[in-house]
């Protein structure tokens, strides 16, 4: 069983690295094609689901480092050389690094903002015919120039009445 585990994990890590690089190239090509048509996606807002990926990336990468350190320490402490080789452990570590790179590049170069920008541009183009019939000054900025389609912006104050304040309490007695 020695060396087979390492070979499998090296192959899995290499596949993850290749998938990450190919995804990055596809997204950069799609961004260039969209920019040539004048479509530029906006940054995700704080309430966007895409922002959660940006928030979770360092946590997941820290966990991968922790798992790698724990794997090496337990391999040495429990005398893992009897069952596996150092090549096998290196394969596991390479697969963890490949997964970290894949996850990081998938998070950084996501296609959801491009899809939202494409949909907003198609909606803006479809409404251009109806906007021509509207009076001057009634049109707004195209949807693809603002926030992503899934972000409504910061919360707005309530318009249906005053916001209640804290309930007074009598703590003197």
Automatic annotation (TrEMBL):
Transmembrane residue ranges: 6-22, 59-78, 84-102
Keywords: Membrane, Transmembrane, Transmembrane helix
Region span, Disordered: 143-173
This protein's name: Uncharacterized protein
Top-level taxonomy: Bacteria, Pseudomonadati, Pseudomonadota, Alphaproteobacteria, Hyphomicrobiales
């Amino acid at each position: 069983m020695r060396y087979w585990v390492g070979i499998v994990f090296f192959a899995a890590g290499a596949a993850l690295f290749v998938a990450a690089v190919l995804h990055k190239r596809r997204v950069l090509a799609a961004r260039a094609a969209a920019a040539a048509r004048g479509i530029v996606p906006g940054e995700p807002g704080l309430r966007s689901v895409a922002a959660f990926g940006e928030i979770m990336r360092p946590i997941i990468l820290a966990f991968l480092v922790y798992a790698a350190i724990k794997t090496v320490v337990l391999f040495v402490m429990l005398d893992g050389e009897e069952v596996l080789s150092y090549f096998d452990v290196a394969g596991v570590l390479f697969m963890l690094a490949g997964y970290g790179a894949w996850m990081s590049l998938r998070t950084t170069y996501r296609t959801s903002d491009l899809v939202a920008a494409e949909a907003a541009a198609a909606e803006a183009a479809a409404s251009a015919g109806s906007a021509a019939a509207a009076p001057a000054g009634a049109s707004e900025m195209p949807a693809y120039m603002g926030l992503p389609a899934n972000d409504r912006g910061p919360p707005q104050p309530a318009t249906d009445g005053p916001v209640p304040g804290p309930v007074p309490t009598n703590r003197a007695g």
